[in-house]
Protein: P-loop containing nucleoside triphosphate hydrolase protein
Organism: Ephemerocybe angulata
Amino acid sequence: MGATGSGKTTFTNLVSGSAFRTSNGLRSCTDAVDVTEPFEVDGRRVVLVDTPGFDDTTKSDTDILTLIAEFLASSYQSGHKLTGLIFVHRISDFRIGGISLKNFRTFKKLCGEQTLRNVVIVTNMWSEVDPQLGETREHELATQDDFFKPALDKGAKIMRHNGSLESAKLVIQYILGNNPMALQIQRELVDERKDILQTAAADEIERELQAEKERQRVERERVRQEMEEAARVREEEMRRQREDEARRRQEKLDRIEADRRRVEENMERERREWEQRMWEEDQHRKRESERLQREFEERVAEERRRTEDQQRWQREEDERLRRELEWQRHRQRRHHGGCIV
């Protein structure tokens, strides 16, 4: 995981031999969760999962969260746990911006505090920066609370990737020493049966959304005041420009709200479908239990009938033998003049 353009897919292709699409432009190329074919590192079978960033150019953050969460929940339900998580960050960035911080905050909420020990923060694109400057930035990232220090304090590790296959394999080899663990969002969705919107990651996205709304509100207020000032000084052209800006910002907010409503509707529909499946499965189990009970009772009744038939036959056989014995005694009495020796 990581911000769009951080080199996630390039790293994945290099170490796995895959050919996922990459881009040098501003648009994201990873618009779905991509899974590599298994490959071997030190005799171990490895599969890498490449995910889009939460700053994707074609999807909202809620869409990206839904994509990732559905994949993680499905794999967890199938009995698979992740051995490690790689968060990719460009050391060439002049500073870690709001988008990168937002990606990492959401990433931490996906993982949960306990799973951070299986996280590797990979800094790459070292060839694009002076080594000494890169080391200074790396130290800042690792020692400041605003950046990666809280995660490193929880057991995460920071490693360098210089673009070579060897350094990429070192990251994988380190991860292979981890104990696979369920992520927080997997436990929330599968074990606790929460909706996606009830997860900690969704809360983080909602917090970012509310912060963005507040920034938009402050910006709209500023624009409004500027518009009033423009009206007072009769700067009609400036007023029209501010109105256009306010309209565009409102349209963006409307799109964000529409995305939110659509995700909520999808989650509600999936919840109803899940409840219907659970009810149908329960009815099936009840019918199966009743069928098994009937079969058991029928077998018991059949066994009882066989036992009764056997007992009846035995009584009839005993009676026949008794009559035959009586008849034999009667013949002997007649033959010996009534004297039985």
Q: What stands out?
A: Strands lie at 34-35, 39-41, 44-46, 49-50, 85-90, 119-124, 157-160. The chain has a mean pLDDT of 85.
